[in-house]
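hi! just following up on the protien thing from before. the input was this:
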Amino acid sequence: MFEEFWWIIPIVMMALCFYVMRGKKGLMMCGHGSNVGGNHVIRDSDSALEIVGKRYALGEIDKTEYEDKKKAFSHSENQEGKKD
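and the predicted 3d structure came back as:
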């Protein structure tokens, strides 16, 4: 009996590997993944300061760049508040 259906095992293994890899990387490529409910997902409604904070948390920018941008955005928000 096994001699007739030996070819099913490699196909099942490949399908299983595809399913596991798609679940881990496929969702992350679409902007989802382990951070679906987390705070690191950048949304259109986020302020510039929130986006910079999230980029720093994700490691996209270093501490110096984060602090420079944070200072610049804080300064520009203060200037806008004074105009009103």
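The chain has two domains: 1-34, 38-84.
Confidence is low (pLDDT under 50) at residues 29-37.
cheers
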